[in-house]
Amino acid sequence: MYHSWLDRWDERRARRGDKGKKTTDLVLDAERAFPGAKKVTDIEEFCVLADHAGADPTFYDNPGGTDQGFDRQGEWLKFRSDISTDVDENNVVWATITDSGSLDQALVIFHHWNARARNRMIANFFSRRGITVVEIAMPYHFERSRPRSSHADYMLSPNLGRTIQSVRQAVLDGRKLIRWLRRAGYRDISVLGMSLGSWVAGLIAAHDPAVSKASLFLTAGSLADMVWTGRATRAIHDSLEPEIDLTHLRTAWGPLNLENYALNLARPGLDLHVVLAKRDRVVLPELSQTFMRGLKDAGAQPNILELDCGHYSLAMLPFILLAGLSLKRFMSRPDKLERRA
Fold it and tell me: Does the keyword Cell membrane apply (predicted)?
């Protein structure tokens, strides 16, 4: 009875999230996704470029922009993104800093898709425990929103190239912020990502050795499969299905697939923490389990918490409390390299 009610609650929440989402046309826009690429006209050409990007170890590296120009005023930090888009507001990155008064640890949080506000409760909770929390705005969210847009439709959409550009921009913005934190003197830097934010946090952890801990909430490996099967992305699926199949989408979004970076995520200096929802209809549990098996096969030992709730009902008691306590224990552990010393 309780779980039936919980499932209905999640579905009502999903329906509210459907407002403003529309089916549109498939767009390739390879020139947005891949630096130096020219316009392509068919999905096969796009997939070739995607394969090259996925094999390029520098795809998520600093493209050569400056690390200067950070402006901190009180709790607010802003700086220019190293990727320039056609939405001016999106080209300036904003973050809030909840200072702990200590330089021992910093936690960078990447929110979920279409988030409306930062999570002050999490920030205050960890800052009181000696961990400075930095909540960054991902592309097209919060202060970076596209004018007159009802949701962050440019972050994740049937525009294959813009979606890759947006996720890559989020990763580069996060890595630029982490470099600033290192220069500010923070010793241990961790990342926390929620839902779509977990893909960003995972990609950063896979490519940035400065990150010692990564916590991924409501995550999986294949973003293509998540979009194709997930409750929150039906409009995107319905836009894509008449034009391409899932096999092509997997290849096209291969550079965004965390399963392709499992060996990176199993590196010796990284600890992994994962929170999953057994009743999730946005990120299906079978997708999450495939990712967990891939991580373990690569040699990673993720600390996994599975809760009997849905994607949205994770925010309800007792689930959010259990997830929070698990994250607190994870953040309190010595780093993997320290434990081996």
Answer: no
100 sits in which H/E element: none
pTM of the model: 0.96
Query: If phi over 0 gives left and psi between -120 and 50 gives alpha, with beta otherwise, what is residue 334?
Result: beta
Average pLDDT over every residue of 73-84: 97
Beta strands at 188-194 and 76-80: parallel, antiparallel or unpaired: unpaired
Task: Say whether pLDDT at 64 is over 80.
Answer: no
Q: Are 258 and 199 in contact (CB under 8 A)?
A: yes
Q: Cβ(309)–Cβ(316) under 8 Å?
A: yes
Is the model more confident about 66 or about 213? 213
pLDDT surpassing 70 at residue 339: no
CA dihedral (109, 115, 116, 120) positive or negative: negative
Nearest to 224 by CA among 260, 257, 271: 257
AA letter at 161: G
By the 8 A CB rule, do 153 and 239 touch? no
pLDDT at 337 over 70: no
Contact 56, 45 (CB under 8 A): no
Backbone angles phi, psi at 210, to 5 degrees: -70, -15
Q: How many Å apart are CA 291 and CA 276, to the nearest integer? A: 11
The pLDDT-based confidence of 278 (bands split at 50, 70, 90) is very high
Long-range contacts of 121-126 (CB under 8 A, 24+ apart): 122/192, 122/324, 123/96, 123/98, 124/98, 125/324, 125/328, 126/98, 126/100, 126/328, 126/331
DSSP string, 158-214: SBHHHHHHHHHHHHHHHHHHHHHHHHTT-SEEEEEEETHHHHHHHHHHHH-TTEEEE
SS3 (DSSP) at 320: helix
Please report the domains of the chain, with CATH numbers, ordered by start residue: 2-340 (3.40.50.1820)
